[in-house]
Specification:
alpha/beta; Rossmann fold; 2 domains; seven-stranded parallel β-sheet; 15% strand
Amino acid sequence: MADQTDNQSVRICERMDKIGRKILIMSGKGGVGKTTTTVNIANALLAQGHTVGVLDTDIHGPNVAKMFGVEGGLLLDSKDGVSIEPVSPREGLKIVSLSFAMEDPDQAVIFRGPMKMSVIKQFLADVNWGPLDYLLIDSPPGTGDEQLTVAQTIPAMTGAILVTTPQQVAILDARKSIDFARQLNLNIIGLIENMSYMVCPHCSEKLYVFGKDGGRNLCLEESVPFLGAVPMEMNLQQTEDEGGNWIENNPSSASAKEFMDIASYIHMSTKPSCSADIGYIPQNDSCSPASCASCSQNCPSKKEG
């Protein structure tokens, strides 16, 4: 059993070392639009020329596939009987979700914690992600098994993005997510206030349905970067239910512009952490990408840190 665990850890390191930035997207409270945020950040990064993988770790309610328009009829495949092939809705995008392993989309997933942890680790170790600029990990609400597994399993995590609404009950739970990240020494890239407001279609006045500036004020109190305020928009829900690309189809919308700005900030404010990006060149059997930055040996590898 120990050997199997060690082998899986090695495979995870090898897979993740080909991915520049690994980002956990999380929320304390459910219903704040975290998956919507994940999908739109992915689409914004794609629009800016980056390659993106999306891992859906919401085991009980996987919705990523539907929002990318590939729900139903697609099952995870393997070309060599060992690696799992991700689903690629379009060029530059790879996604994996437990929904691809289920023939009946209405079937409930009844897993205890250890089983959920096992599934997530298998997705990290066995999926043929290949070289990617980004891996976005969509998680369920809270600070439980799924978030803990991701944070403690993926080496050289870039950090976490937190999603909330301005509503005070959402802010209360967002504080717990901040505390979670800090306890695990997980870099907080920033917080997004989703459903920040909506524009009245008749008078163009901003309507603050869930309150005003809750996310922004939380960031000031906790010294967390505020990434942006994303408004609610007409037809966004229909577009996502139909698996459409809101960023591509509505580039002039306020929310699409906000997501594009957020994606640009993420790219400018974070650094890749993989061997391909730090010029890692193994010199002997004891070399490893994870230790390259702090290695004192004088070798051709570029060291950062």
